[in-house]
Automatic annotation (TrEMBL):
The keyword Zinc does not apply. Residues 489-516, 730-765 are annotated as: Disordered. It comes from Cecembia rubra. This is Tetratricopeptide repeat protein. The lineage of its organism: Bacteria, Pseudomonadati, Bacteroidota, Cytophagia, Cytophagales. Residues 504-513 have a biased composition (Basic and acidic residues).
């Protein structure tokens, strides 16, 4: 019996051993390898991919105020943190291929390898794998899944042509199973989203939603569709999809926002409907489950009130929303952004708009989608406030300088009194806003009301006391006899219980609060010291005032589209400063602004022709239909070269004729200043010396190109005969001729580059400092971020600089330092970095290859992934 049992065991062992062979294609072999491959290597590889995808989903914080992304964004830093999972995927999938070559799970294993490479950002490797499976796999399921993933990858990197080819190929395929069809339409929606084709995106999502049984997935897609329909103005459809999104037990936040946004698109025909919606918001606010979402509720209620045209109530709700505690800084940014919109578009309060934009920007990171938009607007409003405050301050100081000393003192005392009254009003408001607590209620039974009869609990009393103290004693330290007398008692009680430390802390708090109040009061002596005493000081104020009137008028017309306000400032400029060197341009803007309001633009055409016949602005108003843009630049470049050759040959009349016709046909191009200077050079040959001198002086005052101004100044010095170390006019002409030949030969190429370049010069925008490394060196540079933090602590402690890194593409990893308010500050940082930054993580060449980029251009670079393309722009603009 035993012998028989052993024989059976031996036969089974032999069968199993023979089944281990990966070469023999027998039933037993196939069964063994299929089972082992599926339930071991492939199972664990799939599990790890699933874990990676869950981690990506969990790390993503949904911004429900924006249309939700089709796929959760992949953060390269997160992938780096989970690299071990991808290593295991590759290990398991490779074993399934090597050890179980005859199993039916080999193609699935290859697909998992491609997916691991995709998540790791190795697009070449993953693309090759998916292409291989499409050609060689006999399983339609794997082939179709590979093509869908390939389509997503092409869309990721902006290769829409290849993505479209895959779409067309798949459209002709038959036998696509339901799971792959769902992924196909979802990926198609992603493709249309990246192409900004809303209709295509809606159609693809609509097909996808009918192909999944996953309730959570359905809720999310319904929510996205509702958002899209709402933005298209189809409120009824949006309302329906928001209600569908609530079904299927979705995550709490998604359900909350679906119900919240449904109120925005609900049809309200009667006043009771409006009351119902307001009550709905109020009930949401009271619900303790929504404690962390109260800022959102108030924000949405504010938007609702704006739709009812109740701007005052909306603004009140937004201010209240900004004060709520929140874990979502983006939401705070939206609140401040909306307050900025109200103050800009409705109240026309540009100064307040600027401060709300400051608050909005402080809540977000440069990589957030709305950062570039807010930062760009902020730069414009920063300029507005700067010039607005210069006008108010300088105008007041100039008027004060014309008063007697006694009158100046009276004005200063009145100003201080008004400040005291303002501080008292603010303190009273704070006292009224103080919330009642349990101790206030207990004190009320003792006849003390809210407790505010106690001096140090009463803001108004504190403020009055501080002001009275300041009037009598000035800013002397709070260390009088009574305080010195009790110091011994305090020090003896500190070690005996809580009274000592509590008393000491409270006294320090009171001193600090009183000191801060006094610090807000202006000092009469310092106020009087600001008033200019000499004519030279007054003239400096007038120069700044003249510049600010012009810049504000220009800003109001071109950036704020406020033609009437622009006219007001520019008319003040030409009335107050009739000899301003900005007068011609002011006339031109007044001409444009009067066209906008159907005013009298002809008046300014006449003034330009009478007062500035040779101005480029005059040429522009005389020929309003002239060709502009890049074509005008190219044509004017060719004509400039031709005119210069005529000038150099001594054919001055022919040169002037070409110059004048070019300025008329192509006014206000980048060549305009060069053409005018060449015309002045002609004037030096054919006109009298006074005319030549006048034109040079005017050109120096009105031209912004520093190199051309230097050239004109040297010509003027040569004309007046001053003995200075400069080139003669003849030498300048020769130099200009040589430069012209070099520049003109490059003009068309430069124009083409500028036309083709997706990047724009914007020095006033927020900038980022970037170090680019290849992936291998980046992995070795583990201490780079820490070294940068140390460098910042030592040299930029108050700048609040932030560091980070990301994969730009498969060849480059970039390390980022931000933010810098403008290009000037970024350049100063890079100079300091080049001189003083030391790290074993990077080489000298890496430092030299570091660059600066504006936030708008960074968004474009991140989309295009072409670092060499940006470097060409960087070298041309920044170096």
């Amino acid at each position: 019996m035993m012998r028989r049992y052993l024989t059976i065991l031996g036969i089974i062992a032999m069968i199993l051993l023979s089944a281990c062979s990966s070469e023999k294609n027998t039933f037993t072999n196939r069964w063994f390898h299929n089972t082992t491959s599926r339930y071991n290597a492939v199972f664990y590889a799939k599990a790890n991919i699933g874990e990676i995808e869950k981690t990506i989903e969990k790390s993503h914080r949904e911004d429900f105020t924006q249309v939700l992304p089709i796929f959760f964004p992949i953060d390269s830093a997160l992938i780096d943190q989970n690299e071990e999972l991808l290593v295991d995927v590759r290990d398991f999938a490779s074993k399934a291929i090597d050890w179980h070559r005859i199993s039916k799970w080999v193609d699935d294993s290859y697909f998992l390898l491609g997916l691991a490479d995709y998540y790791d950002g190795k697009f070449d490797e993953s693309s090759n794998t998916f292409r291989y499976l499409n050609v060689n796999s006999k399983k339609k399921r794997v082939r179709h899944r590979s093509l869908i993933q390939l389509m997503r990858q092409f869309t990721d990197i902006g290769n829409f042509e290849d993505a479209a080819y895959v779409i067309e190929y798949l459209s002709k395929e038959s036998g696509i199973n339901t799971e792959n069809k769902f992924l196909l339409y979802k990926t198609l929606a992603y493709y249309y989203d990246q192409r900004q084709d809303v209709n295509g995106k809606i159609g693809a999502l609509d097909r996808a939603i009918s192909l999944t049984k996953d309730k959570k997935e359905k809720s999310r897609i319904n929510f996205i569709l509702a958002q899209l329909y709402q933005r298209e103005g189809l409120d009824a459809l949006a309302y329906s999809y928001y209600n569908e999104a609530v079904k299927g037990n979705p995550p709490y936040e998604l359900a909350f926002f679906a119900q919240l946004f449904a109120q925005q698109v609900a049809e309200l025909n009667k006043s009771k409907d409006v009351k119902r919606v307001r009550s709905y918001y109020d009930e949401l606010f009271k619900d303790s489950k929504n404690k962390d979402l109260r800022d959102v509720i108030l924000y949405e209620k504010a938007l609702f009130e704006l739709k009812q045209d109740d701007v005052q109530e909306a603004e009140k709700l937004l201010i209240l929303a900004a004060k709520q505690e929140s874990n979502n800084p983006l939401q705070k940014s939206y609140i401040y952004q909306k307050l900025a919109e109200i103050n800009f578009e409705i109240k026309k309060d540009f100064k307040t708009t600027k401060y709300y934009l400051d608050s909005a920007l402080a809540q977000i990171r440069p990589t957030d989608k709305i950062y570039a938009e807010i930062n760009q607007k902020k730069g414009i409003f920063d300029n507005y406030v700067t010039h607005y405050e210069i006008i108010n301050k300088n105008d007041s100081l100039i008027r004060l300088s014309q008063m007697s000393a006694e009158e100046q003192e009276m004005v200063a005392e009145l100003f201080i009194k008004q400040e005291e009254e303002r501080l008292l009003r603010e303190a009273e408001q704070k006292s009224q806003q103080r919330s009642s607590g349990i101790f206030d209620n207990l004190l009320a039974f003792g006849g003390r009301g809210s407790g505010e009869s106690f001096y140090f609990d009463n803001n108004l009393a504190m403020q009055r006391g501080s002001i009275e103290f300041y009037r009598n004693w000035g800013t002397r330290p709070l260390d009088d006899n009574w305080r010195r007398n009790i110091q011994g008692f305090q020090s003896s009680t500190r070690g005996n219980g809580a009274l000592g430390p509590m008393s000491d802390t409270r006294e320090e708090d009171r001193a600090e609060e009183q000191s801060s109040i006094i610090g807000q009061l202006p000092d009469k002596k310092s106020l009087l010291a600001q008033i200019p005493k000499t004519e030279e000081d007054v003239n400096l104020l007038r120069e700044k005032l003249e510049e600010s009137y012009f810049e504000l008028g220009k800003l109001l017309y071109f950036d704020f589209k406020e033609s009437l306000m622009s006219i007001e400032y520019l008319e003040s400029l030409i009335t107050t400063y009739p000899n301003s060197n900005k007068k011609a341009e002011a006339y031109y803007i007044l001409y444009l602004a009067n066209q906008e309001i159907n005013g009298n633009p002809t008046l300014y055409v006449q003034r330009l022709n009478r007062e500035f016949p040779d101005s480029p602005f005059t040429y522009s108003v005389n020929n309003p239909d002239a060709i502009k843009g890049n074509q005008a630049f190219l044509e004017s470049s060719k004509l400039y070269k031709e005119a210069y050759e005529q000038y150099y040959a001594g054919n001055y009349a022919a040169a002037r004729s070409i110059i004048r016709s070019t300025l008329e046909n192509y006014p206000l191009t980048k060549n305009t200043s060069r053409l005018i200077l060449l015309d002045i050079m002609v004037s030096g040959k054919v006109d009298d010396a006074e005319r030549y001198k006048y034109r040079l002086e005017n050109y120096i005052q009105t031209t912004e190109d520093s190199q051309l101004v230097k050239l004109a100044r040297n010509m003027l010095l040569a004309l007046t005969g001053e003995q200075v170390e400069i080139r003669s006019e003849r030498e300048e002409v020769a130099m200009e001729s040589q430069n012209n030949e070099e520049q003109t030969s490059e003009t068309e190429e430069e124009a083409e580059n500028e036309e083709d370049s997706p990047y724009r010069e914007n020095p006033n925008q927020t900038h980022i400092f970037v170090i680019a490394l290849d992936p291998e060196k980046a992995r070795e540079s583990k201490n780079l971020l820490a070294d940068l933090e140390t460098f910042h602590a030592q040299n930029f402690a108050n700048s609040r600089l932030r560091t980070g890194n990301m994969n730009l593409n498969r060849q480059e990893v970039i390390f980022i330092v931000s933010p810098f308010n403008n290009a000037e500050r970024a350049i100063a940082y890079r100079n300091k970095f080049m001189d003083d930054f030391n790290s074993g993580s990077i080489e000298k060449s890496d430092k030299e290859n570091s660059f600066l980029i504006s936030i708008e251009n960074f968004q474009e670079l991140n989309r295009r992934k072409n670092l060499n393309e940006y470097r060409q722009f960087y070298r041309r603009v920044y170096k």
